[in-house]
Amino acid sequence: MTEQKKIHLMKPNVGKEELDLVKKVFESGWFVEGTMVREFEQTVADYVGVKHAIACTSATTGLELALRALNIGKGDEVIIPDFTHPATALVVQTVGANPVLVDVDIHTYNTNVDYIKKAITKKTKAIMPVSIFGNPLNIDPIMDLGKHYGIPVIEDVACSLGSEYKSRKVGSTADISVFSFHPRKIFTTGDGGLIVTNNQKYAELMVSMKKFGSGITSDGKPGFVRWGTNYRMSDILGAVALGQVRRIKEIVDDRIEKVRIYNKLLENVDCIRIPEIKSYAKSNYQTYAVYIEKEGIRDKVIQEMKKRNIQTQIGTYALHTLPVFTDIKIVGNLENSYKLYRNLLALPLHYDLTIDDQERVVYELRQLLQE
After folding, report:
1. Burial of residue 345, with CB atoms counted within 10 A of its CB: 0-12 exposed, 13-18 middle, 19 or more buried
2. What's the mean per-residue pLDDT of the chain?
3. pTM of the model
4. Buried b / exposed e across 355-369, counting CB within 10 Å, b at 16+?
5. Is residue 53 within 8 Å of residue 44, measured between CB atoms?
6. Which residues pair with 156 in a beta bridge?
7. Can you tell me the distance from the alpha carbon of 74 to that of 192, in angstroms, rounded to the nearest whole number?
8. Cα–Cα distance between 239 and 130 in angstroms, integer?
9. Residue-level pLDDT at 242
10. Sorting pLDDT into bands at 50, 70 and 90, what band is 3?
């Protein structure tokens, strides 16, 4: 019997344009941050509608720079959702601060202002919500809360380039926002990050810190004036990123159309709930994660889909369940986060996915759930 075609969970959308741009970098002989990175930064800044965009080595290091720019460190608390990648909490610990975990909404998978409000203490020095899977969270009330208490908001928008909130581009609203270019993201460089902000002071600090703390000394000469490290993006990665972000609308529109097809195919599949996108939001659908309403079978579904040559995956983690965060501070029971961790299933979604592929994914999923 002939083995069926493998349906991948994700494929990077790169091609000739990216190769041509990388070739220009090779021919220039300038591999460290240069003209490609500068154009990449400016392209995203213009698209998002912010004054400053700062490329770095990953979203994780970008979040670290954001926390350091806000002078967050030992003894400080940073509120984050429990349902997210471990990097969101690990980076808080990296700067010596303490993550505080709050729950998320069971339908949108995002946290909200009500959960966050209950976690604020005198030690709270930042709120760091996540727009998970490209689905924009309701950030205006969170920004209002932050302003009321004088607490800055860093939005982890790792997944969300190309998404919109109330007709504004995601990344344009928080004090600082950070995108990822990891291979699981829609726009990828293999690994990389981009920080965006309208605050000039924060931008100058982060640019300095990612370049070994470089700046101008008291006698007006170039030197090293603060803590820093090397979080610069290479021009090779900048070229790969630039080729993709020039096509943001085209790439995101294609994903939205494929999700429309999935939603239609899944309409009458028992025990499956599709992700909820609020009326104020436009998602780029970095991850199309459906909720399986049969408790505890998700991992078995992943195994069985793999046998059928279809890649699927969990949504993400409930941080409080991970050994590395045994002693982490928790506010609330985190019930929704735990349910999502146990029951979300990410389906294949990428530029090379055909309608036939989607029909096969849904057919196999339906068969497994009936069994």
Report:
1. buried
2. 97
3. 0.96
4. eebbebbbebbbebb
5. yes
6. 130, 178
7. 27
8. 27
9. 98
10. confident
Q: Rounded to whole angstroms, how far apart are CA atoms 303 and 335?
A: 25
Do residues 24 and 249 make contact, with C-beta atoms less than 8 angstroms apart?
no
Residues 6+ positions from 211 with CB-CB distance below 8 Å:
228, 230, 232
Q: Which domains does the chain have, with CATH numbers?
A: 16-245 (3.40.640.10), 248-370 (3.90.1150.10)
Spatial contact of 248 and 197, defined as CB atoms under 8 Å apart: no
The 3-class secondary structure across 239-297, one letter per residue, is HHHHHHHCCHHHHHHHHHHHHHHHHHHCCCCCCEECCCCCCCEECCCCCEEEEECCCCC
Is the pLDDT higher at 287 or at 4? 287
Amino acid symbol at 192: G
pLDDT tops 70 at residue 45: yes
**CA–CA separation, 314 vs 356, rounded Å?**
23
Is the CA virtual torsion 363, 365, 369, 371 positive or negative? Answer: positive
pLDDT tens digits along 83-138: 999 999 999 999 999 999 999 999 999 999 999 999 999 999 999 999 999 999 99
Query: For residues 347, 349, 353 and 356, what is the CA-based torsion angle, rounded to 10 degrees?
Result: 30
- Among the listed residues 276, 344, 287, the one whose alpha carbon sits nearest the alpha carbon of residue 314: 344
CB distance 186 to 349 below 8 Å: no
Pick from 238, 346, 267: nearest CA to 301: 346
pLDDT at 328 over 80: yes
CA angle 318–324–330, rounded 5-degree value: 50
